UniProtKB/TrEMBL annotation:
Residue segments, region Disordered: 585-607
Lineage of the organism: Bacteria, Bacillati, Actinomycetota, Actinomycetes, Streptosporangiales
Biased composition (Basic and acidic residues): 593-607
PANTHER family cross-referenced by the UniProt entry: SARCALUMENIN, TRANSMEMBRANE GTPASE FZO
Ranges annotated as spanning the membrane: 492-518
Protein name per the record: Dynamin N-terminal domain-containing protein
SUPFAM superfamilies: P-loop containing nucleoside triphosphate hydrolases
Keywords: Membrane, Transmembrane, Transmembrane helix
InterPro entries per the UniProt record, alphabetical: Dynamin_N (IPR045063), P-loop_NTPase (IPR027417), TRAFAC_Dynamin-like_GTPase (IPR051943)
């Protein structure tokens, strides 16, 4: 890492944060100093995390393979598995380690690089994918020096669990590469919505347009993507002007057209000893421009992280302002100043009492979340059960039933794994909406719910037993089975006697009766087996619903308790602060003239310091925003013709 310019925004940011931290300490607000220290805690991490995201089939996995020089490293034809991400970092050897989250805690499993798709892609083995949170891959690639690339599940609307995992990854990201394809449709609504969420969590964003090698009109597609993004941002800001600060930077984010295919061809030509052709293909691929952007992100990560620190410092300064104004009022020669401040504090205490009442009412309302969870689970499970009911009705022979029953447990397990992410997403949205409304009503920040990566509870596999009576050759119902068959046999036998004589009756009637008997028995056996399978499925899915509901109700209850505890702590902290201010203001009238002058001078000094630091903070924020926008600037010309 290079030493920051002592006069540059990063160095000035560090000095600025230290000054705000020191001021909070001098004001006796160690709680505020700790908030700022916690925000700056990640500053020492010297590895830049870059999340690579995009919808399925947008070319991100092949892009990553090409960047690190291993074309077959990550699965290209199948999306990254639900609840999983792939981490690429530098190491002395090519290795892969699977990280699982189990009931007994985290588990690490070294695997071969060739088996990565089995554990981390949707085409892999369902049993191996279970509980996998991430796959950590190390390789000796110079590009990864100081960089960690994170390949994430697709953010398609049909795989909502994927999207939530990717959004959660942005909490630890320094930068985002969002991939779109020149051979696919323009950016879609759900991709734009993901970008809006991403912009709230990360400032350094770049768009990568992949697969430009076979697209004659990639430039026009890129312009259409930009137009759609601009229209989306314009409408979102019109609906909520407060979003301008986070969504605006999306419009100035760079677009980098690349071709992994041309870059791979360049590497092949270089191995063949044709450096000139290799250089030409490499230049056309645009990969050099992308790599410069990645290095820019790595070298400028302080700028991206600094914006968060400035925001925290400005918040601390705002909290310190109230205490400084109290000191000014306490030092005033006009008793009305103290009375006015006291009235303000009393009003805030009254409002706080009202908030406490709303907190109790909101907590009661939150208890009904569990009932809504049960409804979500029941509806989603019913959706996947119905196709099985329909399929069972189409099975006409015992052989078909037996084959279906053999495949049924694994098929149901796959269906449940697929629907689980949708259920978790639905429940998370429900809880987030309810609990965020509760938090906003109490003046708290929105909550972050950690449902991402939640493993599905262990469920008993479907087991269906056939109709044993139907398989017992000695079990014959005379009334149900024999008499109808015999009657129909005699009828057909009479017809045969009329045509062939008595011999025809003797030969045909028993044969027809036996055939009818066996056919009827086989048909009823199939029907009974169908009923048995349907009944077993209904019972099994009922058990599954109960287990899922119980697991998710516990999760929601934990969230509810957490946010309510946070609310209680916030209300208590606020009450103590206000009561302390009221006590100080009431004591002000008994102070000597010298003490009042001292208090007034202290308040004036603090207000001056706060004003100066606030102005500097706004200037730094603008500089850092410009620095983030400039990361990776000066890239090569976009890919052109041959």
């Amino acid at each position: 890492m290079t030493t920051p310019d002592p006069d540059g925004p990063v160095a000035r940011l560090l000095r600025y944060a230290n000054e705000v931290h020191a001021l909070a300490g001098r004001c006796g607000r160690q709680d505020l100093a700790e908030v700022l220290a916690a925000c700056a805690g990640r500053w020492k991490d010297e590895c830049t995390d870059i999340v690579v995201a995009g919808a399925q089939k947008r070319g991100k996995s092949r892009l990553l393979n090409t960047l690190v020089g291993h074309p077959d490293l990550l699965p290209v034809d199948a999306d990254v598995a639900t609840n999983c991400f792939l981490s690429l970092r530098r190491g002395p050897a090519l290795t892969a380690v699977v990280h699982r989250s189990t009931d007994k805690g985290p588990v690490q499993l070294p695997i071969t690089v060739e088996s990565i798709p089995d554990y981390a892609s949707m085409r892999g083995d369902a049993g191996k994918r279970r509980d996998v949170v991430s796959v950590d891959i190390t390789l000796d690639s110079p590009l990864l020096d100081g960089l960690r690339l994170l390949d994430t599940p697709g953010v398609d609307s049909l795989t909502v669990g994927h999207r939530q995992v990717t959004v959660a990854m942005l909490q630890r990201a320094d930068a985002l590469l969002f991939t779109l394809s020149a051979q696919d449709q323009p950016v879609l609504r759900h991709e734009l919505e993901f970008l809006a969420e991403a912009a709230e969590r990360v400032q350094a964003i770049a768009f990568v347009l992949t697969k430009v090698e076979d697209s004659a009109n990639w430039q026009s597609l890129q312009e259409e993507n930009k137009a759609r993004l601009r229209a989306f941002v314009t409408q979102a800001v019109a609906d909520n002007p407060a979003r301008a600060a986070t969504l605006g930077p999306l419009l100035s984010a760079p677009w980098i057209p690349v071709s992994a295919k041309l870059a791979e061809a360049a590497a092949a030509k270089r191995r063949e000893g044709r450096p000139e052709r290799a250089d030409s293909l490499r230049a056309r691929s645009g990969m050099d421009a992308l790599e410069r952007h990645l290095r820019g992100f790595a070298e400028g990560r302080e700028s991206a992280r600094g914006a968060t620190v400035v925001a925290a410092a400005l918040s601390v300064l705002g909290a310190l302002t109230a205490g400084a104004k109290d000191d000014l009022a306490a030092g005033s020669d006009d008793e009305g100043d103290v009375a006015a401040r006291l009235a303000g504090v009393d009003a805030e205490l009254t409002e706080l009492a009202e908030l406490t009442g709303r907190r109790r009412a909101g907590a009661v309302a939150n208890t009904f979340l569990g009932r809504e969870v049960a409804g979500i689970v029941a509806a989603r499970v019913a959706e996947i059960r119905q196709p099985y009911e329909n399929a069972i009705a189409t099975l006409k022979t015992q052989a078909q039933l037996e084959k279906y029953m053999a495949e049924l447990p694994e098929s149901v397990q796959r269906s449940l794994e697929a629907v689980w992410s949708q259920i978790v997403y639905d429940v998370e949205n429900l809880a987030k909406g309810t609990l965020n409304a509760f938090a906003r009503d109490l003046g708290l920040d929105p909550v972050e719910l950690a449902a991402d990566g939640r493993a599905m509870p262990s469920l008993t596999q479907v087991q269906v037993k056939g109709d044993q009576a139907a398989d017992d050759p000695g079990h014959v119902d005379l009334v149900r089975d024999v008499l109808p068959s015999a009657s129909m046999g005699l009828s057909f036998g009479g017809l045969a006697a009329a045509l062939l004589g008595p011999v025809g009756f003797i030969l045909v009637a028993p044969a027809i009766g036996a055939a009818i008997f066996m056919g009827r028995r086989s048909l009823e056996k199939v029907q009974r087996s169908q009923a048995a399978i349907r009944g077993a499925l209904r019972d099994q899915f009922a058990v599954v619903s109960r287990e899922m509901t119980l697991d998710l109700e516990r999760m929601v209850a934990a969230w509810r308790v957490s946010i309510e505890q946070t609310a209680d702590e916030s209300l208590l902290r606020r009450r103590k602060e206000l009561e302390g201010r009221r006590a100080d203001l009431k004591a002000a009238s008994a102070r000597s003239a010298a003490d009042r002058r001292k208090s007034r001078q202290s308040g004036e000094d603090r207000m001056a310091a706060i004003g100066s630091l606030t102005a500097r903070g706004h200037e730094l924020r603008e500089e850092l925003a410009a620095a983030v926008a400039a990361l990776g600037a000066g890239t090569a010309m976009p890919p052109g013709g041959s």
